[in-house]
Design a protein that fits this description.
Oligomer: single chain
Shape: globular
Largest sheet: 8 strands, mixed
CATH architecture of the largest domain: Alpha-Beta Barrel
Bound molecules: N-(iminomethyl)-L-glutamic acid, fe (iii) ion
CATH class of the largest domain: Alpha Beta
Structural class: alpha/beta
Distance between the termini: 14 Å
Strand content: 15-25%
Helix content: 25-40%
Radius of gyration: 21 Å
Length: 402
C-alpha cells in the first residue's frame, strides 16, 4: 500500500516542529508495517506504481492512528436521568452515595445480555474508528463480580474484530458493591485473590486499574489491588485525585504504574513524584467538562516535572458520555491550555507508551502501519473544530478499515 499526495505529521518531532512534519509525503506499507516514509521526490517512482493499493490524501494530512488509552465503552443503559438530577443541584458524589452513579450502570450492565453489551459497544467503537482511532483501551468496572467483570472484558476483547487493537483493563475496584458495604476488605480480597488471577490467567486483561477516591477505594486498598495486578503480570494504572487529593498520583508513581489518570486535585508533590517515576498523566478533559467541578489538573507542575501529558476521552455513561476523540483534543486545549501539538502527541505517541505499545503512535519506518488520513490544511485543525471531524481514511496494521 502507498499513501501519497499530502503531508505527514509524524509526531516524531520536537522543538520548532513538534508535529514532525514531512511536506509532500509518501508512505509505503509492507506486511502491516511502515516500510518507507519521506518526501515524495526521494522515492523511486516504481515503488508507488507497483503498490497494490494507493490512498490519495488529496492534499490533506496523514497522522498516526489515534490511541484512546482510557475508555469505559462497555456498559448497559445510560445515565441521562442522573445528569438531569445533577443539573437540578445534586452532586456526583451525593448521587454515588445514594447508590446511583457507577452502581446504577452496574445494575444496567448486569441486566444486559452479552449480545446487547456487545452491540452497543460496537456502535461506540465504530464511531471512534470513524474519527481516526486505531487503538483503544477498554476497562471493565461495571460488573463488580467475577462473572460480570470477566464478561465485560470478553466483550471488549471481541471488539478487536473491527480491525483495531483493543487493550483491556480490569477495573473491578471501581465502586464497592452494596453487598460488601460492611466488608470492604472482603471485596478487595475478591478482586486480588479471584478476579485478578482469573483475568490474568485467561489472558482477558492487559492492565489493572482502581478508583482511588473518597467515594471509591482508599490509598491502601488501591495499593493492594495494583500490587496484586503487577504480581500477576499486568501493568498498572490508577484513577487518581479526580474529586479530591488522596495522594493517588504519588501512589501510582511509587508503585511504578504506567499512568495516573484524571489528576484534577493532584498536588505539586504528586506531579513531582510522577515525573521522577516516569509515570504519565492521562488527562480526561471530557470528565472535567461534563462534571463541571472547576478544579483543573496542575498542568504547569506536570510540565515542569516532565510528566508526559496524555489525552483520552474517558468515554463512559456517567462522567464523559462521548465517543469523539477529537473533542477530547479540543477540550484539552480549550479547558486545560495544552497546545494542539501537545494534545495530538498525547493521543498518539505518548498514549501508545501508556499502553506499552511502543510499536505505534509515530510514523516511522518499522512501526506498525496505523494511520489516520484527514481532509485538513494543517494538523492543528484536529484539535480546532469543536465537535471533531471524521477521518477520510483509517488504516490499521496496513489494512484499510475506513
Ligand atoms: O473515569 N472516575 C471513575 N470512573 C469513571 C466514571 C465512571 C462513571 O461515573 O460511570 C471516570 O470518570
Ligand atoms: Fe475513567
Amino acid at each position: 500500500m502507498a499513501v501519497v499526495n499530502g503531508h505527514g505529521a509524524t509526531m516524531a518531532g520536537a522543538g520548532a516542529d513538534p508535529y514532525g512534519t514531512i511536506r509532500d509525503v509518501t508512505i509505503l506499507i509492507r506486511e502491516g508495517v511502515i516500510d518507507w516514509i519521506g518526501p515524495a521526490n526521494l522515492i523511486p517512482v516504481d515503488a508507488v506504481s507497483s503498490a497494490r493499493e494507493v490512498v490519495d490524501l488529496g492534499g490533506g494530512w496523514v497522522t498516526p492512528g489515534l490511541v484512546d488509552c482510557h475508555t469505559h465503552i462497555v456498559f448497559g443503559g445510560n445515565r441521562a436521568r442522573e445528569w438531569e438530577r445533577r443539573l437540578e443541584g445534586v452532586s456526583y458524589q451525593q448521587i454515588a452515595r445514594e447508590g446511583g452513579g457507577i452502581l446504577s450502570s452496574v445494575l444496567a450492565t448486569r441486566n444486559a445480555t452479552t449480545d446487547q453489551l456487545e452491540t452497543e459497544a460496537r456502535v461506540r467503537l465504530n464511531r471512534m474508528i470513524d474519527h481516526g482511532v486505531t487503538t483503544v483501551e477498554i476497562k471493565s468496572g461495571y460488573g463488580l463480580d467475577l462473572q460480570n467483570e470477566m464478561r465485560m472484558l470478553e466483550v471488549a476483547r471481541g471488539l478487536s474484530d473491527l480491525g483495531v487493537t483493543v487493550s483491556t483493563t480490569l477495573l473491578a475496584a471501581h465502586a464497592l458493591p452494596p453487598k460488601y458495604a460492611k466488608n470492604r476488605g472482603g471485596y478487595v480480597d475478591l478482586v486480588c485473590e479471584e478476579m485478578i488471577p482469573f483475568a490474568a490467567g485467561a489472558g482477558l486483561a492487559d492492565s489493572v486499574d482502581a478508583f482511588c477516591e473518597g467515594i471509591a477505594f482508599t490509598v491502601n486498598e488501591c495499593e493492594r489491588v495494583l500490587l496484586a495486578g503487577i504480581e500477576h503480570g499486568l501493568s498498572a494504572r490508577l484513577h487518581a485525585d479526580q474529586l479530591s487529593d488522596l495522594g493517588g498520583a504519588a501512589l501510582a508513581a511509587r508503585l511504578g504504574a504506567r499512568s495516573a489518570d484524571h489528576l484534577e486535585y493532584t498536588s505539586e508533590a504528586g506531579a513531582e513524584a510522577m515525573g521522577e517515576a516516569g509515570c504519565a498523566a492521562v488527562l480526561l478533559p471530557g470528565a472535567f467538562y461534563f462534571l463541571g467541578d472547576g478544579q483543573k489538573p496542575p498542568i504547569d507542575a506536570l510540565r515542569k516535572h516532565d510528566v508526559p501529558l496524555v489525552v483520552a476521552t474517558d468515554a463512559n455513561p456517567g462522567s464523559s458520555p462521548t465517543v469523539q476523540p477529537l473533542v477530547a483534543l479540543n477540550q484539552a486545549c480549550v479547558l486545560f491550555g495544552l497546545t494542539p501539538a501537545e494534545a495530538i502527541a498525547g493521543m498518539t505517541r505518548l498514549a501508545a507508551g501508556v499502553l506499552g505499545l511502543e510499536d505505534r503512535g509515530v510514523l516511522e519506518v518499522g512501526r506498525r502501519a496505523d494511520l489516520a488520513c484527514w481532509n485538513i490544511g494543517e494538523p492543528a485543525e484536529l484539535a480546532y473544530w469543536v465537535g471533531g471531524l471524521p477521518a477520510q481514511a483509517v488504516i490499521s496494521g496496513g489494512r484499510r478499515i475506513r
